[in-house]
Amino acid sequence: MFVCLGNICRSPMAEIIFRDMAERACRSNEFIIASSATSDENVIGGSGAPVYPPARKILAQHGLSSEGKRAVQLKSADLKKYDMFICMDRSNMRGVVRILGPGCAGKVSLLMDYTGRPGDVSDPWYTGDFETAYRDIYEGCSGLLEYLTK
Ligand code: 4NP
User: Fold this and answer.
1) Cα–ligand 1 centroid distance for 5 (angstroms)
2) For the segment 125-145, what is each residue's pLDDT rounded down to a tens digit?
3) Atom of ligand 1 nearest to the CA of 5
4) Active-site residue 123, yes or no?
5) DSSP at 73
């Protein structure tokens, strides 16, 4: 489960990029791949918001479709369903612990910690730079898939 604040930019990008990578490696049957938000901002009023247009655009430029993805909020029942809660930044980690409780600690990590550049994914909501966010997330997903092979 990839997690960010709004589930309209970074974590849907991670979900879509990682699914594509796993499919290309013929390994998608090993995983349940999803993404969610710590905030309820984009899920209020029934169906969640679609992927934010600039994120859709950068994914499309890399041949990936965001069709059908709608924002959902992380919920406590997800703790049992998923083995890993992979966060885009440190504040998302605090949000995950708030929702899932202290029992989730061993399942929570940062996406960039699977790379040689640990830390936060560049946040395009504030930088406006979706290409840098894409590059960070791609590198993180690639490192994650390699980690899951070991
Ligand atoms: P995301 O981006 O967490 O990568 O989906 C954001 C989306 C919405 C907001 C902030 C970041 N917001 O403040 O509404």
Assistant:
1) 5
2) 999 999 999 999 999 999 999
3) 3
4) yes
5) B
Q: Is the CB of 10 within 6 Å of ligand 1?
A: yes
pLDDT tens-digit map of 29-42: 999 999 999 999 88
**What is the spatial distance between Cα 108 and Cα 96, in angstroms, rounded to a whole number?**
8
User: Each residue of 94-126: pLDDT tens digit?
Assistant: 999 999 999 999 999 999 999 999 999 999 999
Per-residue pLDDT of 66-83, as tens digits, reads 999 999 999 999 999 999
Is the CB of residue 113 below 6 angstroms from any atom belonging to ligand 1?
no
Question: What do you get for the CA distance between the two ends of the chain, in Å?
Answer: 19
**Domains of the chain, earliest start first:** 2-143 (3.40.50.2300)
What's the angle, vertex CA 8, arms to CA 24 and CA 69, rounded to 5? Answer: 55
Q: How far apart are CA 82 and CA 85, in angstroms?
A: 7
